Amino acid sequence: MPDEVELAIVTMALDALDGAADRLVGILAKYVVVSRGQPGCRNMDLCQSATTPGRFVVIQKWDSPEAQRAHFDSSEMVEMAQACDGLLARMPAIDLLEGLSAHDLA
Fold this sequence. Notes:
30% of the residues lie in helices and 28% in strands. By secondary structure, it is of the alpha+beta class. Strands 2-3-1-4 form a four-stranded antiparallel β-sheet. The mean pLDDT is 91.
């Protein structure tokens, strides 16, 4: 029987100020690409809301809660947060999820 994997899944919803969506998506796209190489990162995706204009959601999947917490202290996370200064309509909504049935298909 394979070893049990403890996943940590994080969602970050960020709402751009009017006129700032193009700048924000560029920052988030760079963040996602550079963060995919972080230790323990299983996947990271950038999505755009189909129902709320200017809302972007980053979905992260980590090997463990420890890997996720280490990433939140990383230079990539700090750089992204600083670059978002003045571009957000409100504080990001960040949620940590437990992967009850999440798995990789590959």
